[in-house]
Amino acid sequence: MRTILITGATGFLGSALVASLLAEGHRVKTLSRNDPAGARVRAAAGEAARGFGLILNDRHWELLSTVEVDFRDLRSTLHPRILEDVTHVWNSAAEMSYSLKKILPAMEQNVMASSTLYALTARHARRCQRFYHVSTAYTAGFDVEEVHEALHFTPRLINAYQLSKWAAETNLFQHHQEMKLPLTLFRPSAVIGHQATGWSTGVSFGLFCLAEGILHGKRRNAGQIHLDLKEDARLNLVCIDTVVRRARELLRAEAHRQPVEIFHCVGDESLRVAEALEPAGSLLGLRVVFGPPQLEVDAEIHRIIKKNKPFADSTWHFRTDRLKQVLGDAYVPQSMNREIIRRSMMHFLAHRLQELAQEPGMATALAMP
Ligand SMILES: NC(=O)c1ccc[n+]([C@@H]2O[C@H](COP(=O)([O-])OP(=O)(O)OC[C@H]3O[C@@H](n4cnc5c(N)ncnc54)[C@H](OP(=O)(O)O)[C@@H]3O)[C@@H](O)[C@H]2O)c1
């Protein structure tokens, strides 16, 4: 029986992975911070299970054990005994802020904590077969048309998140040279909600940051907004259930495995920015026009979305040859369409509207049409 150690289990990807692995009958151990009895992990995994349409009974929940740690000091707070029976690690926890003011916490968590966890696993988890590190496809940086499943040596990086995720890949690769625990760098593109249910956690990251900008127009009672984005650029979006499916397939795959692997977990590039954002506008009853800000509300929206503008305005093509080779027939491409985006946007906006409705005077102004 596998025992899979997961970090980031209070978040979007990690909680979905926990719920799905428990449902499959695996033992799961989580490392989380500020979570003495594991209540945050259990609540997040419960939400994810509902979002995936999974039913977890007591037998499933008994397979979960939670451990509170301080990621800044894993050597003291992660007892080697916890690692003894671990067969695989999925390291998903990450400081997600783009702000360069957050570069220190980003380096501490994304680089140092990830490397320390790898080193402790290599040393104490004798049964561990592989360390999976969740990175991002955007460590490729900008001005790269075709991104290979390989380390990037001199990428053009623009924010603390991208920089620290890139540094973590390089650092883990170096650790592997010394410690030899097999390593997989798993790079999703921009993750959106579940294909069938639209479920996500309502965090305004990636595409949802752009939706948050449109939502701001609704909060300000605008009938039309201008988004300063290239409407014809192509977005690469991947659904959370595809991410989790690929993770589970990798845990099962035995052929063509390498000591160090780098995989892209991505969708296709069929959707234009305008097509991806149109559902948010129509769900909120707003006309979305692409072009420079015209009014004060457009300028406010621009301040919300500008950190993601360089990503939305660029088109990347991510190679997946290696992942296809390892997964063989299990690899089914994830194609994107307007209906999937609409479901995802609907779930995200409903979640955010519910949160915003708690603010005084917002309830009536913000109902979806
Ligand atoms: N979402 C995407 O579109 C996307 C795309 C590509 C790659 N990824 C990668 O997927 C992974 C998970 O992302 P996500 O979307 O699930 O993010 P998320 O929902 O924001 O979850 C982040 C997780 O990391 C933990 N975390 C954040 N800062 C931390 C810190 N300083 N110390 C310790 N733990 C910390 C959070 O714990 P707390 O609850 O304690 O804050 C949470 O469990 C990340 O590695 C990210 O780079 C995500």
From TrEMBL:
Gene of this entry: mupV
UniProt domain Thioester reductase (TE): residue ranges: 6-245
Name assigned to this protein: MupV protein
Pfam families in alphabetical order: NAD_binding_4
High-level lineage: Bacteria, Pseudomonadati, Myxococcota, Myxococcia, Myxococcales
InterPro entries assigned: FAR_NAD-bd, NAD(P)-bd_dom_sf
